[in-house]
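Exercise (ungraded).
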Amino acid sequence: MTAIQEAPEAVTTEPTTVPATVLPSREPAPETPEQPRRVGGNTRSDVLALWGAGASGLSVALLLFGRIAPLSGALGFVVTAYLVFLVIYAVLVGLEHDGPAVRDRVMTVVLWSAAALLFTALVLVIGFTVWRGREALPHPNFFTQDMQNAGPLDPLTLGGIDHAILGTLIMIAIALVITVPLGVACAVYLNQIRGRFSRFVRTIVEAMTALPSIVAGLMIYATWILILGQQKSGLAAGFAITVMMLPIVIRAADVVLRLVPGNLTEAAEALGASRWRTVWHVVLPTARSGLATAVILGTARGIGETSPVLLTAGYNTGLNADPLHGPMVSLPLAVFTFVKSPEPAMIARAFGTAVVLMALVLVLFTIARVIGGRGPGQQTKRKARRAARASQRDAQRFAKLRSPALSLPFREASASAGTDPRTGENL
Amino acid sequence: MTSADAVPGRPWGGGRQPDDVPRRLNAARGLGDRIFRYQLTAAGVAVLAIMAAVGVFLLLRATQALKATGFSFLTTAAWQPDVHDFGIAAVLTGTLLIAMVAVLVSLPLALGTALFISEVAPRRLRRTLISMVDLMAAVPSVVYGLWGLFFLQQHVITLSRWLSDWFGWIPLLKVDGTEPGQPLASASVYTASAFVAGIVVALMVTPIQCSVMREVFSQAPAGEREGAYALGATRWGMIRSVTLPYGRGGIIGGTMLGLGRALGETIAVYLIISPVFVIQPHILQTGTNSVSSLIALHYGDASEFGMSALMAAGLALFVLTLAVNFTASTIVARSRSGAQSEA
């Protein structure tokens, strides 16, 4: 633009003999609102091609399966319809566009369908379990009784799974008591103390995240039960779940701690804080929500595992609240045991138990998502207000000191929740 | 200018003074800090010890059985530890076949979903989809087992029959006792096969593979993406020329991580298969076995020596998954080079 505007001046001030290039003076462009060109999105013909191909794919499959060829089966129908749809869609797009565009459109459809297939499977798994669980779940005794008085042939109005619910809660509590302090400490270790040994620990932990859960159970069986001579109990099952959960929690916590902004820890160290004060007052509070998510997701995995519990907890049908003595049963183990019976009532109980287990996992998962929705250091409004109040108190304290060497400007207004209280006010 | 020709007494000379050595920063650690370091190190050592204990104690308990059989532990198919005739040839074959089916089914699914989430999906859908993939990873394995046993199996029979009719000439897909074009053959030869178990395990490992791949894809450099678009690439062209080459390590590593999970899966496989103790290479045919379901099947009625044999099988599984996982995490870590540096 600048070159065009300057051109007439150059012509008038400097007369030359050679004819200079003269740009025609341009009137200012008429004031029309700019309309951004659409670069993405679907045009009408795209939508029509998609729907048309879909309709013709369905029709061809209907024709093939109903009239022409002696084909049958729902799976074959869907696959045929899909393949025909893809081919016709490619042809329709090819009428208007060139090769790369056709490939792009077809692959986009393929990627959509891959994701759709996966999520259909998820919905089927959950939906089928809930559907089959509808027989056992409406009976209130399912949640308030144990299986002590209910045999395989008894109707669903007798017996329940409260012993399994209690057992699951006890086992996961034991596992959490060990996992949370040890796991978070180990994650902090991996982050804070660098060196060859900590890298080695990290490698081992990463490889152990996919430790077969039955091997975890086998290890506790070999040590706790065979070598130490203890009996099968809730405690042993808790240990087995711990072995399985620990690498998962450490790995997730390690990833979260790595996301803590370096300038926060540097600020703490610049203020003279020692290492442990930095970790305790800056790193851990900043990563709190992420750490909670890591622990909760690990818990969800630990609750659902059957095989460590299978080897170490034994199986009982009555309520047992003592993790030290006697066998104990967990929800997944109860599902597993019920489903091995051929009786329809037991299988209905298995599905009901599976729904309870899944609901538990879903609740944990939702809590994890709600807590972990924010990145490290992002605060809720309440937290921000609390931090602002704390820093206001600090500022007042400093103002009271009135040390001549340290005269801090004290501004009431800036202690509002809008500014970042952590970095702005704490000084 | 070297330090030799710097004139003494002229500190702004630019050169280094002879006595100008960088001061050694003395970060004197207080007592609290030292205790803190010791505690953290102790936590790290404790975790390492627990993990090492898994291998050590398995090995300890397994020596008795391994001594009794020696090398034939790897080549015997039968499992009769009380007459000292046992080995993991059959169960290991079954485990590998189930894992192979699982990876073959899950790889396209995971790759497609990961690409969809990172490249194609509308931005507002993305968080929901990621949550759903994570949820899928959190669904207990016993639930997948129930679904596979009561729902999937009867629907897969059609596919199994079609595959064995048309591709029965491939040894892996052959089914004994059926002939092509004989639709009235009993459907029960297709149930409880490695194929059904593999599909169920595939659903369990897809979310893991998918989240590893998606994470690597989303780190593909924006500059190169925009460069591809600027050169006129379509979205698929950009994916092929930037995202996929950049994420190759993530694809391989994620697949192998899934493979590690698939090898160790117990309960879903146990519920679906009907155990046999011969080497069964026909994946569509009923009857197969896996190391972990062998352990779950026999731990209850095992004698002391039988338990030792089971520990040996567990050790073999442990070593196998550990090798796969080590390779996988090395590949993933290499593909993420630079992503670990501090922001």
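Further reading is listed at the end of the chapter. For now, observe: The two ends of chain B are 37 Å apart (CA to CA). The first helix of chain B runs from residue 31 to 69.
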